[in-house]
Amino acid sequence: MAAGLAETKRRLRDLGLRVTAPRVGVLRVLDAAERPLSHAEVVSRLGGDAVEDVALWDRATVYRNLVALVGVGLVRISSHAGGICRYEIVKDPKDCTHPHFVCDDCGIVSCLPEAEVVTKNNTRWSKSLRGAEVQFVGRCPSCST
Description:
Blueprint: H1 5-14, H2 21-32, E1 37-38, H3 39-46, H4 54-57, H5 59-71, E2 75-79, E3 86-89, E4 100-103, E5 109-111, E6 135-138, H6 141-144
Parallel strand pairs: 4-6
Antiparallel strand pairs: 1-3, 2-3, 4-5
Helix pairs in contact: 2-3, 2-5, 3-5
């Protein structure tokens, strides 16, 4: 996404997706996000469900676009904390090694890119592994103060 709007549109077309305002909007929101976002947070950041925006940003449209973007590998579900999917842009398809932190108080899920999950490459499970979901749970720095 950082490459710009023209590059984003080209990638969508190359992956067989139509370029639509909601789809590009969802990608922009996730690209600008400092952490994985839930569907409701994406809708909120898009300004969805306001009377004048219903046609473009309704919850169902946003959800369908998240599903489509996950399906082509541009977005991934990085957390299922509390039974809520949280989405993030895939910057490197091979990078699924950073864990996430889930705050017990505020429910925010944060990336921990400085921490890395390491697995042995030569185990019988190596070829089966396609992703990882590691979560640390506790009180975030904001809630601890």
